[in-house]
Automatic annotation (TrEMBL):
Keywords: Oxidoreductase. The lineage of its organism: Bacteria, Bacillati, Actinomycetota, Actinomycetes, Micrococcales. InterPro entries: KR_dom (IPR057326), NAD(P)-bd_dom_sf (IPR036291), SDR_fam (IPR002347). It comes from Arthrobacter humicola. This is SDR family oxidoreductase. It holds the Pfam family adh_short. Belongs to the short-chain dehydrogenases/reductases (SDR) family. Residues 9-176 form the Ketoreductase domain. It comes from the Bacteria.
Length: 253
């Protein structure tokens, strides 16, 4: 069945209860996608859905394999396919350098940002292989940290570098099944997470000083994700970097 005969493409969005995930889920719903919203707590998911009839909220902890299986089973039961996964759930982790981080904090950050992304990608790929030759598309949310760290973010930075390897592996292994994969690296979209690390009030710079950094609306970050998601099956955006204009990324010091 061609895309033109489906009422709307089916997307799974993890971390849909806040931030970039919420903005992407809402924009996808507005653009006619059928969206499965995943996140640890149901209440924020229902807030994101705002009663939209094409939204399905599924509480899910991406670090728990059974939860992830249940998430994709719910998607398939409801709409019989998965066209897009926005692999977005993530945590910033502790403020610590390599000699300071506890093993527990390291493992907790890796569990969400890396293992959780792997588990969701695995379930999505299984669903997409089953609908081959149509396949599908996975978009991994990396970060500017996939290119350049902030001070004392060893766990976050390492997991986001690792997402790049996951992205390339999915893209390569998906070739024979019509499955494509790309990574979006977003810098300083205005979210609660950015408030947490002090981007607007004064984020720690490489020289130890603090400075307020520019941000840009999270809705515009969502538009970039939608651009990637909406490419035809014959094309793939493998990597997209979008930052607040003038943020200290190109020249850090």
């Amino acid at each position: 069945m061609s895309q033109h005969h489906t009422p709307g493409r089916v997307a799974v969005v993890t971390g849909a209860g806040s931030g970039i995930g919420r903005a992407v889920a809402r924009l996808m719903l507005a653009e006619g996608y059928r969206v499965v919203l995943a996140g640890r707590r149901e209440e924020p998911l229902l807030e994101t859905a705002a009663g939209h009839r094409q939204a399905l909220a599924v509480p899910c902890d991406v670090t728990v394999p059974a939860d992830v299986e249940r998430l994709f089973a719910a998607a398939l039961e409801q709409w019989e396919r998965v066209d897009v996964l926005f692999n977005n759930a993530g945590v910033f982790g502790p403020a610590a350098s390599v000699d300071e981080i506890t093993v527990a904090d390291w493992n907790a950050t890796v569990a969400v940002n890396l293992t959780g992304s792997l588990l969701c990608a695995a379930a999505a790929v299984r669903a997409m292989k089953a609908q081959s030759p149509q396949g599908g598309r996975i978009i991994n949310n990396g970060s500017i940290a996939a290119h350049s760290p902030r001070p004392k973010t060893v766990a976050y930075t390492v997991t986001k570098h690792a997402i790049t390897g996951l992205t390339k592996s999915i893209e390569l292994d998906g070739r024979g099944f019509g499955i494509t994969c790309g990574q979006i690296d977003i810098g300083n979209a205005a979210t609660d997470l950015m408030d947490e690390i002090g981007v607007g009030s004064g984020a720690v710079q490489a020289d130890g000083s603090r400075r307020a950094e520019p941000t840009f609306p999270v809705q515009d970050a969502a538009r970039a994700v939608l651009l990637m998601a909406g490419m035809p099956a014959s094309a793939n955006v493998g990597s997209l970097v979008v930052t607040a204009a003038g943020m200290p990324f190109i020249g850090r010091g």
